[in-house]
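Researcher: Hi, I'm a grad student and pretty new to this. My advisor asked me to get structures for two proteins we've been looking at. I'm not sure of the right format, so I'll just paste the first sequence and hope you can take it from there.
Model: That works fine. Here's the first sequence with its structure tokens right after it:
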Amino acid sequence: MPSSAAVLEIVQCEGSVSTKESSCHTSDDVTVTGTEDAGFQVKGYTFSEPFHLIVSYDWLILQGPAAPIFEGDPLVLRCRAWQDWPLTEVTFYRDGSALSPPGPNRDFSIPVVQKTDSGHYHCSGIFRSPGPGSPETASPITVTVQELFPAPVLRASPSAELQEGSPVTLNCQTKLTPQRSASRLLFSFYKDGKTVRSRALSSEFQIPTASVEHSGSYWCEAATEDSQVWKHSPQLEVRVQGPPSSPASPTSNPTSQKSAGPETSSTEPPRPVPPVAPPTSEPPVFSSPDPHLHYQMGILLKHMQDVRILLGHLVMELRDLSGRLKPETAKAPAK
């Protein structure tokens, strides 16, 4: 039988119900519950979701997660040899690129996965005695990291432009995937780079009586309770207009009326001066992390992981190059 042959078997039950102890049921008795932990119900009994059993005859296989994997979940991949024969120079790959230098570790793990970790994974290794003693490569498997929840969208109700004294409600709109509906999200709200409310269960932030000082750029952040997955919304500009200016008195001349306009408009720019003077309000920022800094740190960590992958690939190329140079240096003295 070829070493690359693989068989896919779906274990299922067929036939009609004959006894109370029978595990076979007709399709009329089966109802789908639609919940996360329970897949099917048969006359009061609850059963799990079915799974696919794959039997492979390869020398080397890569075992991945059986259940769907979402953002924030840990990912563990195992490079398994036939009858657990000892392996050396085990290397894991994603989309053809080495994830680490060759080594004895048969497991590769990612503590917190992101959607960018999706791809085609495979492993390779060299069998020790009594194995074939040659490099073997496992067939690739597909790992798809599903989205836990979409990036939130911040909306203002009734409107983002309102008169002073009116109420306004900011709603951070997002939703968990149905498979993880039991999880909880915490919502934070920011204005002009400062935290106005941090990590609350409610997705709404209410301003009962808006004033001109409430004008500014708002955005929200939705995060899991363990802060492993967090996403922020685009910015929303909220403009609160002051009360209309009173009509000019009959004795006032047109020039005074014209000058009153610039005076009222000139008073508006100094209103948002407090956000421009951060020295007095800078210390409270340290109590809650800046979402932009948190986002940049995530990008930096991702770049560091990419550099690690490139270094592992470079080490493999250097080993191949050194292996080619040794025969050439041995032939030179013989000549």
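Researcher: Oh nice, that was easy. Here's the second one.
Model: And its structure:
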Amino acid sequence: MAAHLIVLFLFSVLKGVHSITIVSKVSVKAGKSISIPCLYHYQYTDHVKYLCKGYFWTSCRHAVKTNEPDPSGKYLISDDKKQQIFTVTVNHLTNQNTHYWCVVEINNGPDHGQYFQLLVTNGTPSLYVDHQMITGYIGENITIRCHHSNSGEMKWCRLDRNCVTGSPGSIDGTTVTAHMSEPNVFTVTMSGLKSENSGWYWCAEGDIQIPVYLTVTENTTTTPTTISITSHAVAGNGKFTTMEQWNNFTIVENKQHRASSFPPKILIIPLSVLIVIVIVVLFIWFILRHIEQSKAESSATAMVGEEVTYSEVRTKKKCSPKAGDKVTYSEVRPKKKRLPKAEGKETEVTYSVLANLY
């Protein structure tokens, strides 16, 4: 009976091994984060998936489930049912975060799990890429640089598909060239990208792999045909820790680009209306100013043409002559006599005749 149970247990484990495909060893730096893809059979699409922590299958404990998120944020999990891949992410890695299992929960039976190991180091990892999450554009090229420190065969593979080594090859109908561009750098170029090229890949050196997720989308910008990926958010930098977060970022980024690239013709009508309004206002202001200036000039002219004569009237007392005083009376008769004109003007002279009266 015991032997029968052991055989059944081994059969379940072997069945679980073939039901899930993942990487086996991943080198990563302490304090960073890493995302691991777990490919499962289509018959487990609606099953619960989880990450199990521990070296032994029989004693590992649940870290996070698709139906039970980790409240601490240490572990994340997402399930892409279309591609039959669930992705687990471990944040803030330490030397104690090394042994894990990708597991599919089986109802009324033993769960199916696949083991992987994280090689956590305080220094530079033995195999790493510039960015774990990258984006390419349909019809264009993309280049991935795999940095390694050990000597071994380098290859570029798609999860559960074929691999390309040093010679040119093809993955899903896309041309792939891989070569050592410089010491300890394995350069991979994928040409003529298609939407079906989106998915998980890995760069491998011996038995160590580093997963890379490629998103292929439409190019809405005027970038060159060949793209060398040098800066994208990585799950390891704490910004994007799941595929869902990465895809949401890509959607928002595309929406912002479309919003900022509106056609300039939209501005023509508002600008034309504004120009017409400015011209009308200036015309009215010019007319009103001209009218005010005309009124001011007319008033000044009227004031200049008028001649004003001022006269001063003073009263003078008349004194009666005293007795015995000798009085001389005179009669003044005006007599006009014209003299020669002086400087073109006539001068009026008044003469008087004095007569002594006794």
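Researcher: Is there anything I should tell my advisor about the second?
Model: You could mention this: The first strand starts at residue 20 and ends at 21.
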